[in-house]
Design a protein that fits this description.
Layout (H helix, E strand, L loop, with lengths): L1 H11 L12 E6 L10 H8 L3 E4 L5 H4 L7 E4 L11 H13 L3 E6 L9 H10 L4 E4 L4 H8 L12 E6 L2 E2 L5 E2 L5 H4 L4 E6 L5 H10 L7 E6 L7 E6 H10 L6 E5 L15 E4 L6 H6 L2
Parallel strand pairs: 1-4, 1-5, 2-3, 2-4, 6-9, 11-13
Antiparallel strand pairs: 7-8, 9-12, 10-11, 10-12
């Protein structure tokens, strides 16, 4: 490992402008949900051997601290309301940097192919004959669920998982109505995981209840999952939006809806703030978590 790091430092010592004109490579790397210990070995190697790192808002500071000193960094983060760089310009940036001979790491929170627009970027790279690779990351669904003590599947409680986005964007500036197959999503045999659903949480739970889920159905909201600042709200569908608002959970927030959410009470292992309104739990919670 020391020899590998020495090679990385030697590579960084050269001026990027003086590199070969041969085309470099772009690595679309999943940084996982935040805890740097959850990085894959391949992701860490890619980060530490990169000439340039292009990273998103959801990549934690702890992971960015692993980028070697002297490596050029481009922040292209975006949220629902603010965008540092439009997606088309990110494509152009990646292509331009690689054409100059740089090995570029495109670093994304979670997994690049799970609501990370990694597929779009890979298509553009392929169109321009830019060599690329995909380095999967632990998804936020898996990581946050595990750190909140909530298994996504569990014998007798959930036979499958559905993962959806909580908002839809027609283009870079206009958000579309959240029109989903609510009847299909209101399934008591599967776990529903909602990414980017904080702003529309009240709408989401109302639609699910309108299509058959009980108001007392378990739900959890996880903020800053896997990090020391992790906070978890466990409630039922009728109150999860209100409790999340009262707790002032800050983005990023992952929402898990399903019977398995009740297990977060019993399987809490990671030292985080658990906001758990136990005294108002209906009988369903007591039955499911024992």
């Amino acid at each position: 490992m020391m020899a590998f790091l020495h090679h990385v430092r030697m590579k960084k010592s050269g001026d990027l402008a003086l590199q070969s004109n041969s085309t470099g490579k772009v690595s679309l790397v999943g940084a996982g949900p935040g805890d740097p210990d959850l990085l894959t070995v391949k992701a860490l190697k890619a980060i530490q051997s990169a000439d340039i790192v292009v990273y998103d808002r959801l990549v934690s500071e702890a992971i960015m601290a692993l980028v070697p000193h002297g490596v050029t960094r481009f922040f292209v983060g975006k949220s629902c309301k603010q965008k540092v760089m439009p997606q088309e310009e990110i494509h152009e940036l990646l292509i331009s940097l690689a054409k100059k001979g740089n090995d570029v790491v495109r670093l994304k929170g979670g997994d690049p192919f799970m609501f990370g627009r990694g597929g779009e970027e890979a298509i553009e790279l392929a169109k321009h004959s830019i060599p690329f690779e995909i380095v999967p990351g632990i998804t936020s669904a898996h990581g946050c669920g595990a750190y909140a003590g909530i298994p996504l599947t569990h014998r007798g409680l959930a036979t499958g998982v559905r993962i959806i986005t909580g908002h839809r964007t027609a283009d870079e500036d206009k958000e579309e109505p959240l029109e989903l197959d609510w009847k299909s999503l209101a399934d008591t045999e599967t776990t529903l995981v909602v990414y980017m659903g904080l702003a529309n949480l009240a709408l989401i739970v109302r639609k699910l209840m309108e299509h058959g889920l009980s108001a007392h159905y378990p739900a959890a909201a996880i903020a800053h999952g896997t990090m020391p600042s992790q906070r978890v709200v466990i409630a039922d569908l009728a109150t999860i939006a209100e409790k999340t608002k009262d707790a002032q959970l800050a983005s990023p927030v992952l929402v898990i809806i399903g019977k398995v959410a009740a297990l977060g009470r019993e399987l809490e292992w990671f030292k985080s703030e658990l906001i758990d309104n136990k005294e108002n739990y209906p009988e369903i919670f007591t039955k499911l978590s024992h």
